[in-house]
Amino acid sequence: MSEQEHKGQQDGPQGPVPGPPPPRLQDQPPAAPWNPAPPPPGAWQSPQGGAQQPPANPWAQPQQGSAWDSPNPYAAAGPGFPQQHGYTPPPKPGIIPLRPLGLGEMMDGAFQACRRNVLAAFGNSLLIQGIITALTVGLGFGMISTLEDAALSGASDDELAGPVLGALTGFVGLGIISLVGVMVVQGLLVVPVARATLNLRTGFSQMWRIARRSILRLAGLALVLLAASAVAVTVLVLLFSLIIYLLGDAGIAVVVIAVLALAAVTAWVSVKLALAPAALVLEGTGIFRSIARSWQLTGRNWWRTFGILILTSMIVGILTQILTIPFSFIIGFAGASTEDPAALVASSVLLIAVTLLVSAVGYAFQGAVTALLYVDLRIRREGFDLALMKDQEGPHTQDPDFLPGRHAVPMSRKAPVGPPMGMP
Predict the structure, then answer these.
(1) Ranges of Low complexity compositional bias (predicted)?
(2) Residue 368 burial by CB count (10 A; 0-12/13-18/19+): exposed, middle or buried?
(3) For a designed S-S bond to 408, which of 220, 261, 383, 387 qualifies (C-beta 3.0 to 4.6 A apart)?
């Protein structure tokens, strides 16, 4: 049977046999509501309420206008995204940043401390230097007047020995007073400088009130150092005299070499003790404890301390000469052009006043640098910057007699900490 005959038998004589009709729409059961199961935790969900779509290909090329096309791809991230933290500079509440200081920062901080506390810095130095200058001038005029009276009266050498010895004794006493005055000036200047690190201003009477308990100890420190120096000089003079007596001319060469070596030792000891007044006032320590603290702080930092102190002294000396020499010529020329004794006295007094004013400014700046050097060494060795930050946040900064760092506990550091990379 062919394929057509077989197909004809299946379809029938009248055509294809109709199949069962399709089911009607109303006869079908209602469709269940679409309620997809919640996605597992961590699966991607569409942010809108529309149909769920698969996540985009993470390796696809970013579209136009995406974050990669913005001019600043490193802009701050939006809320909820982790932000990148860069270097945060140390705080600077006052004249210096609270970190190890560079030379320029130290010089600028000293100038700012003196500028913000004019009366406390310059007034204190001017007062003490004025007292010392007045005593010096009075003693000098008294000695000259005594010698003139003795010479006019025809006194013998034995009779002149008394006034001369008295004048020399007076000058020795004046030297002691000068040393004590310089020590007091250097110690008192720590108060306005330390307060200026936290942007606290200090008045003249306020400075004396804060440091009143340290004044006698500062004078005692000066006397102790002076007594130690006198004993050392006496012993050395006797020793050198004995060497010259025993060795003759060869002993002179030995003494010269020894004097040069002693000059180096004296400079070394002077630098080691330079911070004792600052430690005495700011830490409230005793005389010998302040000496030990200065010795400790300058350890492993002697050359740096020496260089800063020498540079400061040179700057002050050069500026003093620049300011006083022109006045000396002008006043001297004006006094020489007249024979009036009153004009000569007036020109001399004016020259002394100018010299006194310039010297007071120099002493104030030098003392401020020394105080900041003390603060810097404590920051490098003991974490003093953390103590200052803590004092800044405390409520006691409202106390008019507050002295920063007075009760700070030193924290030992194995190595001196320097400024961040790129910083001076």
Answers:
(1) 43-65
(2) buried
(3) 387
- Measured CA to CA, the distance from residue 307 to residue 291 in angstroms comes to 20
Distance CA 273, CA 288 (A): 11
CB 302 within 8 A of CB 309: no
CB of 251 closer than 8 Å to CB of 241: no
At 326-376, the pLDDT tens digits run: 877 777 676 666 666 676 777 777 888 888 888 889 999 999 999 999 999
Is 191:211 a contact under the CB 8 Å cutoff? yes
Q: For 271-314, give the DSSP string.
A: HHTTTHHHHHHHH---HHHHHHHHHHHTTT-HHHHHHHHHHHHH
Q: How far apart are CA 286 and CA 221, in angstroms?
A: 9
Question: Token pair for residue 55?
Answer: 């996540």
Identify whether the C-beta of residue 281 lies closer than 8 Å to the C-beta of residue 188.
yes
Burial of 346 (0-12, 13-18, 19+ CB in 10 A): middle
* Coil, helix or strand at residue 409: coil
**Which tops the pLDDT comparison, 26 or 165?**
165
Cα distance between residue 407 and residue 404, in whole Å: 8
In the structure encoding, which two tokens stand for residue 8, read together?
């004809």
- CA proximity to 373, closest of 123, 185, 186, 125: 186
| Cβ–Cβ under 8 Å, residues 375 and 189 | no
Give how far Cα 22 sits from Cα of 19, 25, 27, 28, 200, Å.
9, 9, 10, 11, 98
Q: How far is CA 366 from CA 98, 185, 316, 410, in A?
A: 21, 10, 7, 26
State if pTM tops 0.70. Answer: yes
Q: What angle do CA 41, 46, 50 make, to 5 degrees?
A: 130
Of 328, 356, 349, 308, whose CA–CA distance to 122 is shortest?
356
Asked if 218 and 183 count as a contact pair (C-beta separation under 8 A), the reply is: yes
> Which burial class, exposed, middle or buried, applies to 351 when counting CB atoms under 10 A from its CB (0-12, 13-18, 19+)?
middle
Q: Which residues of 168-201 are buried (b: 16+ CB within 10 A; e: fewer)?
A: eebeeebeebbbbbbbbbbbbbbbbbbbbbbebe
CA–CA separation, 169 vs 150, rounded Å? 18
